[in-house]
């Protein structure tokens, strides 16, 4: 069976690269105005406690490759709706919460256009559409966009693996990309803090490669050479060069605020929140992966994601564990939805504090538990996509949050 999986996966990859889809779109729009459908539900025969089954992995991989290429696409109720509800609950205005969530989703899609449940753009869609940030998209290896979704740590392969279910956002020595994007987001528009490909800066005063004053260029730009598993040991190579991150065609990171406009700080936060959630979503892969810095003997940054936990079958199955299943049946390492929502809440509290909008009630651990453990998590387990969408919206409504654009209006 492994041979069959290798053959089919390799053939599929010859047509298109593997998808890097942390909390990928789970609600897909159906052409013709029919109700939305599940983008890639876990096949009923597949268990929730074994992501390594060859047949389930193959079906999940093919399903993602098919459904996420549909004309109308879809959206993630984790990246979009849940982020919006959390942001609003911790103190961001309705406008700010929307744009944070919109750019969270746009980090996967390049551009986010809000649509209703029938797949039609909402009436004021033009005013609610993000700027193009396709340089950050999950499948864009050449721009470094892939690394906003797969964020391995800088460490020796012999060192212990990190805890990616709760990554340390204050550890620039190891969590290079995560802490780098967070610092850029915290700095806000107009700051001199760079956003660099791979998160790589010149060494800081502390010796890390995440928080230096400029993108790595000492004595000149360095190659970033990586491998990403298809079915270990079969992997694809990818190559980048250190320097400012590509935002869109012809737009580099120093132009970000001008390119995005008035919502640039919200956009920065949304991009970081996406990277954080994907660090957790992909932790089974990225905890085992490594980044190594240049040395006198080897002048490039190297990223090794060629490990069995990055294989495309288990990778796709684990994303099908993130919505529409009974979370109680998951193995602890696969409880990524709860882990991500918990950290997104905590981080949005910190950003709201910096922005001066924090609702003091958000600091109450019981309020957090009510929203996430008693609210969003049960809602996201509904297998039917319409029920799941409505249930998530209802969680926000109960918290006094107006429905996300395109969602059913709050009742009562």
How would you characterize the overall build of this protein?
This protein is 38% helix and 10% strand. A hairpin with a 2-residue loop joins strand 5 and strand 6. The termini are far apart. A 5-stranded mixed β-sheet has the order 4-9-10-5-6. Strands 2-1-3 form a 3-stranded antiparallel β-sheet. Strands 7-8 form a two-stranded antiparallel sheet. Helix 3 crosses helix 10, helix 3 packs parallel to helix 12 and helix 5 packs antiparallel against helix 7. The N terminus is likely disordered. The protein has one domain. It has 412 residues and is of the alpha+beta class.
Using brief descriptors, characterize the structure shown.
10 strands, about 400 residues, 5-stranded mixed beta sheet, 3-stranded antiparallel beta sheet, alpha+beta
The major beta sheet can be summarized as: 5 strands, mixed
Shape: globular
Percent range of helical residues = 25-40%
Question: How much strand?
Answer: 5-15%
User: What are the segments in which pLDDT stays under 50 over at least 5 consecutive residues?
Assistant: 1-18
Quaternary organisation: single chain
Strand order of the largest sheet: 4-9-10-5-6
What's the helix count? 12
SSE pattern:
HEEHEHHEHEEEEHHHEEHHHH
